[in-house]
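Figure 6 in text form: structure in, sequence out.
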């Protein structure tokens, strides 16, 4: 502790860490949400369609299609980086509306906004 350069360096690193805390210490990103009115007339078929599109995008269904929801995960071969897609379906007025939420954990290279737009385009066609 007698070295003033050590104290100055430690203080500098603390200030630097506080300044960039949003980028270096918190790997969670904001979720991307899409909503699609599906052509299918029931929730089960709509969620099956979402599952098939997510499988094409290398997501793996976490626990299969449930009554109103679907969970899927995409990993980057690292436990620190993974992506989650949660889909919920609601019937209203004879149509099925599906909401898919994409979340990225870690510093992976997948662009969630681009992925969400591709999934939405495939679901609408």
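Output sequence:
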């Amino acid at each position: 502790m007698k070295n003033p350069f050590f104290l100055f360096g430690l203080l500098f690193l603390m200030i630097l860490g506080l300044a960039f805390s949003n980028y270096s210490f918190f790997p969670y990103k904001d979720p991307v949400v899409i909503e699609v009115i599906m052509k299918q007339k029931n929730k089960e078929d709509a969620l099956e369609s979402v599952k098939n599109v997510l499988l094409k995008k290398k997501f793996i269904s976490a626990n299969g299609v449930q009554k109103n929801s679907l969970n899927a995960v995409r990993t980057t071969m690292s436990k620190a980086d993974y992506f989650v897609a949660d889909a919920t379906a609601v019937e209203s007025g004879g149509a099925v509306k599906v909401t898919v939420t994409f979340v990225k954990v870690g510093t992976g290279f997948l662009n969630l906004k681009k992925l969400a737009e591709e999934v939405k385009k495939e679901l609408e066609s």
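Caption detail: The longest strand covers residues 81-92.
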